[in-house]
Amino acid sequence: MARPHIVTLTTDFGLVDHFAGALRGVLLDVFPEVRIADITHAVQAYDVLDGALAISESYKYFPGGSVHMVVVDPGVGSERRPILATVGEHYFVAPDNGVLSLVYAQAESVLVREITSSHYFRQPVSSTFHGRDVFAPVAANLAKGVDPAKFGDEITDYVRFAAPTPKKSPDGSLRGIVLKIDRYGNLITNIRASDAPELLGNDPPPFRIVIGKSEITEIRSHYAQGAPGEVFAIVGSMGFFEISVNRGTAAKQLGIVKGTEVAIRMGGAAAAGSEIVTPTLLVRQRLELDLGTRTIVVQAWPPAHTDDDLTVFDTPTRTLWLSDLLFVGHTPVIDATITGFLAVMKNLPAIAADHYVPGHGRSDLPWPKPLQAQQRYFTVILNETRAAIRNRKTIQQATDEVGLSEAGNWAVFDLFHRRNVTSAYAELEWE
């Protein structure tokens, strides 16, 4: 494939410091004919999902053969691998932390290599600036025409995650989150137009979009169609529903932050003819349900993720449903107690399951191995929060500092981690 000598840059470096300039300098030093295109240097700091959105929404508009350098790297200097991904006709140089997940999800063909040929690196390699010393020289040599195979061997266990997807509730409403807030204050949700096409037809049903304390009942086809100061919904260029204000910022006007829940409620059709079935059995510890051809074991656990956690075990297939007691790849969430969550996790491996279904994420690791990452994450929060309390740090200081070493290991870390630290601090403060 002929290469157009283009290298694009997507980073969270910002433009105040020298970092972005250093990348450009190394690229030009290695390959003076390189054509550099800055996609953005304003990815939210440490936010791998934000970086994944930025590159996945932009790379496809560049010519085939372009090299895309993506440096959102909270795990820099750790054991995370540098990778080179060939996706269709495009090349990507990035840390192996999931920042290319949404690119992978759009592609028909993906080949990923671990970058191990250190003679291409700038020496000495800084433990805090792999963008300059590893990724930039590799990207420049790749744009120059070096064969991708020369940088390292193919791997198949590269990190990837699924972006948060909207869920249908029992009442028929569609529930999602604010995925991103752009510089205009538009609230970009994770609900695509294709998730609710009936709202965009000639005769849409009655609907309400509920976000925070606000309800939106108007959908516009373009921003200027709304009156100045009016809050409305619109399908943006990324294909997601957005909440916008004409010539204003919806984020400030509505007091909404990234991660806020959004619900689209459409008429009463979803509930027509339905019947509410109330619970008839209380699971105090363990309940066996004899279904004739199989026995289902329902087990209640002490407070952990919530104060009403249950697991379901199908004995014939030895399949264990863990609900939100297990998060794989997706940042775990504490709604009850971190110490209780860790205690429950010590007991879960005793269930002899051949198959398991996590509350979030994939199930391709053998049971109970996927518990290890979650246990490590909670242990880091537990130990560092206790240390923060001993050192008389405030809860705000703790949420700014605790557990940041885990940022590169989890999807949507920025949405849920501070909340977890806040919960842990409130619990551990009175030990």
Give a structural overview.
The chain is of the alpha+beta class. The chain has 3 domains: 6-155, S-adenosyl-l-methionine hydroxide adenosyltransferase, N-terminal (Rossmann fold); 167-271, Elongation Factor Tu (Ef-tu), domain 3 (Beta Barrel), CATH 2.40.30; 286-428, Ribonuclease Z/Hydroxyacylglutathione hydrolase-like (Metallo-beta-lactamase, Chain A), CATH 3.60.15.10. It is built from 9 helices and 21 strands. The protein has helices at residues 19-30, 48-56, 101-106, 130-144, 250-254, 338-347, 371-390, 395-401, 413-428, and strands at 6-11, 35-40, 67-71, 82-87, 90-95, 110-114, 154-155, 167-168, 174-181, 187-192, 207-211, 214-216, 219-220, 231-235, 240-245, 261-266, 286-290, 295-300, 310-314, 319-327, 355-360. The strands form 3 sheets. Strands 8, 9, 10, 11, 12, 13, 14, 15 and 16 form a 9-stranded mixed sheet that branches. Strand 1 (6-11), helix 1 (19-30) and strand 2 form a beta-alpha-beta unit. Helix 6 packs antiparallel against helix 7 (371-390) and helix 8 packs across helix 9.
